Amino acid sequence: MNLVTAPATGTPVQSPASGFLRASLGVTAVLVAASWWFILAGGGQAGAMAGGDSFDQALRFLRGFVGLAEDGTIARTRSGEALVPAYLQWDRWVVMAGLAIETLAMSVLAIALAGVGMLCTVLPAARTAATGVLLLGSPTWAGRVTYWLVRAMYILTRGIPELVWAMLLLFVFALGILPGALALGIHNLGIVGKLCAEVVEDLNPRPIQALRTSGASSAQVVLYGVLPQVLPQFLTYVVYRWEVIIRTTIVVGFVSAGGLGREFRLAMSYFHYTDIALILMVYVLLVIAVDLIGAGLRRLAV
Amino acid sequence: MATSAGNEGRFGAGAPLRQRDLPALAHGRGALTVLLCAAVLLSLLRVPWGDDLVRPGGVAMVGQVLGGMLKPDLAPEVLGKAAAAAWQTIAYAVTGMTVALAMALPLGALASGTLVRNPVLRRVTMVLARGSLGLLRAIHELVWAWLFVAALGLSPVAAIAALAIPYAGILGRIYADLLNDVPPQPVTALQTTGAGLAITFLYARIPLALPDMISYTFYRFECGLRSAAILSFVGLGGLGFQIQIALDDLLFGRVATYLLVLVALILAVDTWSSQVRRRLTQ
Questions:
Q1: B233-252, pLDDT tens digit by residue?
Q2: pTM for this one?
Q3: CA–CA gap between residue B107 and residue B84 (Å, rounded)
Q4: Alpha carbon separation from B279 to A18, B97, B107 (Å, rounded)
Q5: What is the SS3 assignment for A14?
Q6: Minimum-distance CB partner of B46 among A32, A177, A298
Q7: Which of B132, B130, B223, B224 has its CA nearest to residue B175?
Q8: Which residues of chain B neighbour A66 with C-beta distances below 8 Å?
Q9: How many Cα atoms occupy the beta-carbon half-sphere of A57 within 13 Å?
Q10: Bridge-based pairing state of the strands A12-14 and A3-5
Q11: What is the DSSP letter of A175?
Q12: Tens-place pLDDT, residues A157-200
């Protein structure tokens, strides 16, 4: 990759880039060694590594998960009736389907917010557009300032995890899917914005410059030169992030932002482990469904 | 696309358009627009709009949160805690990623279908390996973390396993695609000399795919760091744990400090990894 062959001898000569790569390799090795040393030395947690009785604990958990009592027999109530695991009860499935729809709505709102926010901010965030290269203009102060402002906003929104956004928003909003959707949308705005700004930076400038030299206004250039080139790639990224968001909705729900995640937290605190099993089944089905819809959307877009 | 965004672009780029595709395309776009707008509208209807959407006193809270956030608490004690928590987060991310890598390489190689000659057997291994990779990444790392904490207690094993499982699924799937998509000429050249599948894999596919594989792994490390920070939510230590404690105590100045450390950490890894990626894929 970075080896340039010297013409006379045929031996590889290193370009300056590989010095940086070698240093990076060294830093990575040191990080890996130090991290494992730290964890194995018990620095990770007060409880240190798993002790002897953790196997029994794990076994008990797994039994509860499939609906068995702690000694491995069928779980019964005090009066001796067998307890039916939640995943074998039709009405529990109906309840979970309702929560799944709520979760899906949360993810759609989140990606809509991220997508619309990205479309409104992505052009000033592209270096080529900000410095005027793209439109054959000269760099302006306003362009530079908005570039850095939008980029800083992207860094801040994606640097703060969605869970922390949700915790902050729950100081203001009542429990429900709206704070969850806002948290996911804000965090993903930074990610989608960064990805899509790179698409704009990498696009072929010639059609745009041709439009410009033939007298098109900025709005016309954006409509007929930029958007047709970037939209398929934008949609691909947005759909890809939607698939990530649906996996994350459950996590945002943990802080009571509604949907399957909230139910997961409640079931965990009441030790309703068969409910957990059912929630996970519904969750995986939802993720698979969204992946399939996403694949269909991508085919429509391209 | 291929240069600066690197492998984040591996989700199917736009195919070149031909003239006769245009009516079909317009049809697809129109249907898509209607579909997406309908989905957003239906979702908006699920939100219980009303006066109780905002907490009582919620608007006043915005001022308190923002006021605290603008004044990060830089006391030496807080900074010390932030440094220790940051290191713990890094350690979880690095150890989790190494385990993920060890799981992703063999699964990815099997899922690429380049190691098996028999077509029936190849299909079977590909479906099995791709299916298991899909299952690994279907469940979010924080859900794994909670399950592991419930099963094993608060142990670093829970943190490492929770990170390793979904990241193995993601890395393995991308590795499979990369190993599959290498330029065919060097592979064919090696095959014509009589090299078997294992030799072709080791001396053509791996070297050809390696820069992209490393570059994608680096990008994922950045995500892993963010994931490791929020593992704290289920009680495992790290930056997220400190953020949570500070939020519970309404100490927004401390929240700001820990968030700044987290953002700085992610920014540093982001810059490092984009430098590495630029040099690897240039």
A1: 787 878 888 888 888 888 88
A2: 0.81
A3: 35
A4: 8, 22, 27
A5: strand
A6: A177
A7: B130
A8: none
A9: 14
A10: antiparallel
A11: S
A12: 988 888 889 988 888 888 888 899 999 999 999 999 998 998 88
How far A167 CA sits from the closest chain B CA (Å)?
8
Q: Is the pLDDT of residue B81 over 70?
A: yes
Digit-coded pLDDT (tens) for A99-138: 899 999 999 999 999 999 999 998 888 887 777 777 667 7
d(CA B118, CA B140): 35
Helix (H, G, I), strand (E, B) or coil at A259: coil
Per-residue pLDDT for A21 more than 60? Answer: yes
Sequential DSSP letters for A16-83: HHHHHHHHHHHHHHHHHHHHHHHHHTT-S-TT-S--TTHHHHHHHHHHHHHTB-TTSSB-B-TTSPBP
Residue carrying structure tokens 């362009």: A143
Nearest-Cα distance to chain A for B243, in Å, is 8
Mutation for B interface: A32, A53, A163, most B CBs within 10 A: A163
Q: Do A45 and B236 touch (CB under 8 A)?
A: yes
Q: Taking the CB of residue B41, how many other CB atoms lie within 10 A of it?
A: 11
- Residues B81 and B85: their CA atoms lie apart, in Å, by 6
B140–A44: do the CB atoms touch at under 8 Å?
Answer: no
Q: Is the pLDDT of residue A212 over 90?
A: no
**How close B185 gets to chain A, by Cα (Å)?**
17
- Among the partner residues A20, A35, A264, nearest to B91 by beta-carbon distance: A35
Q: Which residue of B has its CA nearest to A32?
A: B94
Asked whether A127 and A141 are in contact (CB, 8 A), the reply is: no
- Structure letter (DSSP) for residue A125: T
| A chain contacts of residue B34, beta-carbon cutoff 8 Å | none
Task: Give the ipTM of the model, two decimals please.
Answer: 0.80
Gap from A243 CA to chain B (nearest CA, Å) = 10
Query: Which residues in chain A touch residue B156, judged by CB atoms under 8 angstroms apart?
Result: 39, 44-45, 48-49
Chain A: give the shortest CA distance to residue B52, in Å.
Answer: 7
Residue B169: pLDDT band with limits 50, 70, 90 = very high
Rounded percentage of chain A residues whose pLDDT exceeds 70: 84
3-state SS of chain B is CCCCCHHHHCCCCCCCCCHHHHHHHHHHHHHHHHHHHHHHHHHHHHCCCCHHHECCCHHHHHHHHHHHHCCCCCCHHHHHHHHHHHHHHHHHHHHHHHHHHHHHHHHHHHHHCCCCCCHHHHHHHHHHHHHHHHHHHHCCHHHHHHHHHHHHCCCHHHHHHHHHHHHHHHHHHHHHHHHHCCCHHHHHHHHHCCCCHHHHHHHHHHHHHHHHHHHHHHHHHHHHHHHHHHHHHHCCCCHHHHHHHHHHCCCHHHHHHHHHHHHHHHHHHHHHHHHHHHHHHC
- Token digits of residue B51: 């006066």
- Contact criterion met (CB < 8 Å) for A105 and B46: yes
Interchain CB distance below 8 Å, B282 and A2 = yes
B138 and A287: CB-CB below 8 Å?
A: yes
Contacts of A45 in chain B (CB under 8 A): 154-156, 159, 236-237
